[in-house]
Amino acid sequence: MMNAAEINTTVMERFSRLAANHRLAHAYMLVGPRDSGKTQTALSLAQLVNCECPKAQPCGQCAVCLKIASGNHPDVYVIDSDDPESVKIENIRYLLGRTQLRAYEAKTKVFIIRNIEQMISQVANTLLKTLEEPTTNTLIILTTSVPEAVLDTIQSRCHIVKFLPSAVNRIIQFLKEGGIAEQDAHFLAVYSEGCLGRACQLAKQDIILKRNRILDDMLFNRRQDDFLKELSGDPLQAAVVLGLLLSFFRDVLLLKSGAPSSALVHQGCLKEQKTFALREMADLSLIIRQIVQTKKLLDEHLNARMSFFLLREYLWAN
Ligand SMILES: [Zn+2]
Question: Is the pTM of this model over 0.85?
Fold first, then answer.
């Protein structure tokens, strides 16, 4: 039932730090695309809080870990809101009622409710009550791939944990094992859209160093006429620069709309992005339109020099 390959190790490392500091919350909502390992990670967390040989990660070998992995632990409940049998109102009421009772044998009772957005409104109130009046030694983990469909009242009572698609997450792990720092690995994995080959190629091309230089040249160095002229004559290099700028400003828009920094592609440039996020929305959309326009000229093999200089005007307009 449990598949270790699908556990999100980045999220588990975070849970493990929280557990070590006794700072785990009583309710989490795991949000991410289908098949991004949410349920497997929830089960791994259930093991972590109950493992007989407490370490940074669950041992996977003790009787408790094995029972949870095989779905036979009496205090670890998995409710699948997709499954009409398990989602019967009386079943859920009964299970949530169990949060009030003593555990059979676990240190912490764990309730995992999958695809919470499917939960029928009749049980939502019971769940809300459970979330509002947490009992000690109970952990509730909800999962969803459509957070927009989950009641605000439920969301606001849980700590939200976001999952990246599993391909992206596997690449981050792979790059980290190769000695690449977390922030950089995250950037490479997301920027390559979850394609391992492309991520490695970008790493080999020193894309991060390049990105930092490009941002310095385009955004902060006022004497870069030569750089712009060079770019206009080098379509390949220009495409890299425009692609990076576009994703940089997409991040800026996200920040401006209140997204957490964990949602950003360029997590290593937060300071620079915050500076730009102070600008008016109209300014930012002008910049983005000009990046797209310049890219279009290059794609059509037209002279983009004027367009690059106009882009610089917009970047520096204040
Ligand atoms: Zn164990």
Answer: no
